[in-house]
Amino acid sequence: MATFLYRLGLRAATRARAVIAAWVVALVLAVGAYLAFSGPLVSSFEIADTPTTQVTEELQDRFPDVGGGSGQLVFASTDGSGFDEREEAAIGALVEDVAALDGVAGAVDPFASAETMAQQRQQLTDGAAQLTDARDALDAAQQQLDGARAQAEDAGQAAALAALDAQQQDLTQGRAELDAQATALADGATLLDLADTVTPVSDSREAAIAAVQFDDDPVDPEVLDAVAGVIDGHPIDGVLVERAGAAAEPPQMSVFGPGEAVGLLVAAITLFVMLGTFIGAGLPLVNALVGIGIGLTGSLALSDLIEMNTVIPVLGLMLGLAVGIDYSLFILNRHRTQLRDGVPLHESIARANGTSGNAVIFAGITVVIALLALNVTGVSFLGLMGTVAAACVLIAMAVAVTLTPALLSLAGDRITPAKERRGQRPARGKPLPTTPMSTRRAVITLVAGLGAMLVMAVPALDMRLGLPDGGSEPVDSDAYRAYSLVEDAFGPGATSPLLVVADLGAPVSEEDLVATQARIGSAIADVDHVSGVAPAGVSTDSQLLAFQVVPTGGANTVETESLVHGLRDGSAGLSGVTLGVAGTASANIDISQKLADVLPLYLAVVIGLSLVILVVVFRSVLVPVTATLGFLLSVLATFGGVTAIFQWGWLADLFSIHHPGPVLSFMPILLVGILFGLAMDYQLFLVTGMREAYAHGVPARLAVQHGLRHGRVVVTAAAIIMISVFGGFVFAHSVMIQTIGFGLAFGVLVDAFLVRMLLIPAVMHLLGRHAWWLPRWLHRIVPDVDVEGAQLTQVRAAADTRANLPIG
Questions:
Q1: How do residues 584-594 score in pLDDT, each as one tens digit?
Q2: CA-CA distance, 249 to 561, in Å (whole number)?
Q3: Is there a domain that residue 522 lies in?
Q4: HEC states along 645-686?
Q5: Distance between CA 256 and CA 507 in Å, rounded?
Q6: Dihedral, CA atoms, 315, 319, 324, 325, nearest 10 degrees?
């Protein structure tokens, strides 16, 4: 591989303009494909074959008009007073126009719905009064009948007694009918009482919710635009209108904003400080932007054919920028060192491509494998995230080993500071250490470092997984404003109602429907953390009953999670009835549970992969074990940091976190995959220097210092750049992007500066020469991959020596 990359670098350097033109054409084609073929991105996350999706599919098959997405229009009085008749009429007209739109299956006027409920309650009250009057009349008739019977018996009038028996039967039948009516009234009253808190109009009449049912899910953006147009066309003085659920405007995921710009600026400053020239600082940035431009636009060009989430381009941008800058930097730094040593320009470019470029290819492959391994989780959207990010990393690798040599060729010796070129300042560099670190220092470093890592990992013991709800959305978004209005007016449970489906096992008759609904509704209401229950429909075959259940807490609370599991586990105690749960809160719980279940499998795959690759690279058993243990420490510490910030709310004001909640459900798997690849990058660039020094006869413990001195500067710069790029996303508009950005930035910080540059050198020192132990049988079968291209360096050095020998 090193020889191939040497030749590739030499060809790119000698044909620089053609290589640059080829990459420009590729960028233009990718952007053109994106503009021509890209489709809308979705903001929801779905996993097939979960309890929620099974219930949802059953609802779509067996319930009329439930096939599409459901949303809400939330109305609130701006002056704190109840709605008047004019406002109620205007809201009703607005809802009616929304219901008439193409793509909308129906919309319910909240005041008409509330009026219907009030009428039903009044009918029950009137019915109860009529029932009382009827019972009084029956009682009076019974008294008369009893008196007549006594007289007939005294007179021995057999015919009269027979007539009185017939009248008694009529009275008995009438009493039975009244009892049945009383039972029906009681069942109806029970249903109304259960649904007392499930009301579309708040008690103060300051807020109202109109339910909107759409034909499709996800809802066509044109339909949402039409809904927004109706709202804009019906301005109501004194009334605020917000959209929620499927009716809300999808969150606009900003791929690049001020935070990301600051991150790039910090990366540019780091490059300039390290390299000392504007050309040197700009070259890795140009490479990264070209790579990410091709990778992102090329991937998004397929978004009309493949459903992609809004997080996908952001993750690709994060990784593409970070590795694109770092990979180019590794090659550029090696080239500058060789130029200072007097190696000719094109030869230096080729050697840097064959040595550091070889390491870049290996490092990139580890990241790509870790990202593609996300597909083993069986979670489609997560696998797609990993695939798109892997494509961006692959393109960054290709750019690094082709475009970088071409640009270095055009830059010439201007890649080094002017004073060095004129000989006014010697090339910077420090002599290699002549003594190893002390064993005492190594022990103290190891103990203190492990203690610090374990302390940082403590919050991870309390980590809960979930997906953001409306309360986590940006404060200026439709979703957040609607969430706040509903929570304030109706309680937190109203922001995330559940849809509970009861399978009766057999069709229910129309006569028994209300009684069955009351029985099941009462049983559901008795489950802990239920605020209200309301009938929501009957299936076409009358075997399934649907109920809207309002929990006492929001979607991401422990109470709601307990409620969902309790309903599914049969805690309602309904004999012969099976309950299923659907809804946004239920779906989020299922997704989080599914991702938590597959995390151990993915972790096992990544750790196994880590051990195999590192054994091949370092030809050692203990080095891979220590590297993997260090990686696990980094992951645990990162989980702890993310939990403390986003779940516990530490430093919430600093990071603009206004609604702490569970940790993003797919964040742990993403962090494991991405941090694995990046950790192996740093391990490679530090420990291969130690191995190379040891292989050249340097004592094992001194070789640790040599390797650390060899790779410390470039790894420090690379880590700062990655932290800057990832950290720029911490202040993004979406809590999902914030979580991923913080997790990656914090993970790189911990892994690079604590694990790779403190703990690993200390462990390597304590292991001494045993660190490089490899069983003989394994030595024979493990290939020598020569990651650093040492063999190429030796061959080229020998060629230089022969070329400089005197003739004759």
A1: 888 888 888 88
A2: 27
A3: no
A4: HHHCCCCCCCCCCCCCCCEECCHHHHHHHHHHHHHHHHHHHH
A5: 55
A6: 110
Instruction: Determine the 3-state secondary structure of 502 from DSSP.
Output: strand
- pLDDT at position 786: 60
Q: Which two tokens stand for residue 623?
A: 């080095």
Residues 260 and 377 in one domain: yes
Distance CA 426, CA 418 (A): 11
Residue 189: CA count within 13 A, CB half-sphere = 13
- The whole-number pLDDT of residue 808 equals 39
CATH code, domain with 783: 1.20.1640.10
CA dist list (Å): 451 to 454, 457, 754: 5, 10, 11
Rg (CA), the chain: 36
pTM above 0.85, yes or no: no
351 and 793 Cβ atoms separated by less than 8 Å: yes
Task: Say whether both 277 and 177 belong to one domain.
Answer: no
Tell how strand 465-466 and strand 663-664 pair up: parallel
Q: How many CB atoms lie within 10 A of CB 418?
A: 12
Same domain, 321 and 302: yes
Do 434 and 402 fall into the same domain? no
Mean of the per-residue pLDDT values of the chain: 84
Domain-terminating residue out of 400, 423, 446: 423
Helix 278-300 vs helix 380-411: angle between axes, to the nearest 10 degrees?
150
> What is residue 563's three-state secondary structure?
helix
The string of pLDDT tens digits covering residues 708-722 is 887 888 888 888 888
**CA angle, 369 as apex, 364 and 374 as ends, to 5°?**
130
C-alpha dihedral (140, 144, 147, 151), degrees to nearest 10? 180
DSSP 358-398: HHHHHHHHHHHHHHHGGGGG--HHHHHHHHHHHHHHHHHHH
In which residue are the tokens 């964040």 written? Answer: 667
Q: In this predicted structure, what is the pLDDT of residue 24?
A: 94
Q: Are 331 and 761 in contact (CB under 8 A)?
A: no
Instruction: Clarify whether residues 612 and 670 are in a common domain.
Output: yes
pLDDT at 43 over 60: yes
Q: Confidence band (pLDDT; 50, 70, 90) for 573?
A: confident
Which residue in this structure is represented by tokens 């099941």? 520
pLDDT value, residue 67: 62
Contact 771, 683 (CB under 8 A): no
Average pLDDT over residues 725-748: 87
Assign 168 to helix, strand or coil. helix
Token match 């243990």: residue?
Answer: 629
- Angle 397-398-401 (CA atoms, 0-180°, nearest 5)? 85
Tell me how far apart the alpha carbons of residues 778 and 615 are, in angstroms, rounded to a whole number.
9
- Mean predicted confidence (pLDDT) in 722-730: 87
Name 538's bridge partners: 545
Q: 20 and 143: one domain?
A: no
DSSP state of 74: E
SS3 207: strand
**Residues 6+ positions from 337 with CB-CB distance below 8 Å:** none
What band does 807 get if pLDDT is binned at 50, 70 and 90?
Answer: very low
Each residue's pLDDT tens digit, 347-393: 888 888 888 888 788 778 888 888 888 888 778 888 888 899 899 99
Please identify which residue in the block is written with the tokens 């309301």: 534
Residue 807 within a domain: no
- Rounded to an integer, the average pLDDT of 502-506 is 90
Structural domain range at position 301: 1-41+253-423
Q: Which DSSP symbol is given to 579?
A: E
3-state secondary structure of 214: strand
Closest of 179, 180, 184, 176 to residue 123, by C-alpha: 184
Write out pLDDT tens, residues 620-677: 889 989 988 998 999 999 999 999 999 998 988 888 888 888 888 888 888 888 888 7
The percent of residues above 90 in pLDDT, for the chain, comes to: 24
Tell me the two tokens of residue 10: 């030499």
Count of domains observed in the chain: 3
